[in-house]
Amino acid sequence: MTGSLRLAAVAAGLGALGVALGAFGAHALADMVTPERLATWRTAASYHQVHALAGVVAGGLAAWRPSRAARAASGLFLAGIALFSGSLYALVLTDVGVLGAVAPLGGLAFIAGWLALATALWQDAAGA
Fold it and tell me: 120, 62 in Cβ contact below 8 A?
């Protein structure tokens, strides 16, 4: 159970980081990168925020009602943030196009996370 709460705590910290990175993009990057790159940054920040919250929810669920699927969901959301949002942030900052090739792996982690969360909720409902 402690590990699940730690995942939720890391996700909450990533939520704070997402706000900071979103603000950085809106204020510091606005005049430094092309509008297309700024749109990429905003996409990264948006997915970052949504999945940080999803990670908190999944980690909290796993702590409240121990579930391998909920714990996996939280971990997958965190991995997705690192791979998807992280690669897009790096792409914008470095203009190294190959970094964009990493983003789909993060997208797959997000999808797997949502499916794991759905599984955890379904299993919990079946056991209730």
Answer: yes
0.90 exceeded by pTM: yes
Rounded distance between C-alpha atoms, residue 76 and residue 120, angstroms: 13
Alpha carbons 2 and 24: distance in angstroms, whole number? 33
State the Cα–Cα distance between residues 58 and 61, nearest whole angstrom. Answer: 5
First-residue to last-residue Cα distance in the chain: 19
What are the mean pLDDT values of the chain's consecutive 10-residue runs (128 residues total)? 85 97 94 94 98 96 92 97 98 94 97 97 84
Mutual orientation of helices 68-80 and 2-27 as an angle, nearest 10°? 20
Residue with tokens 């699927």: 69
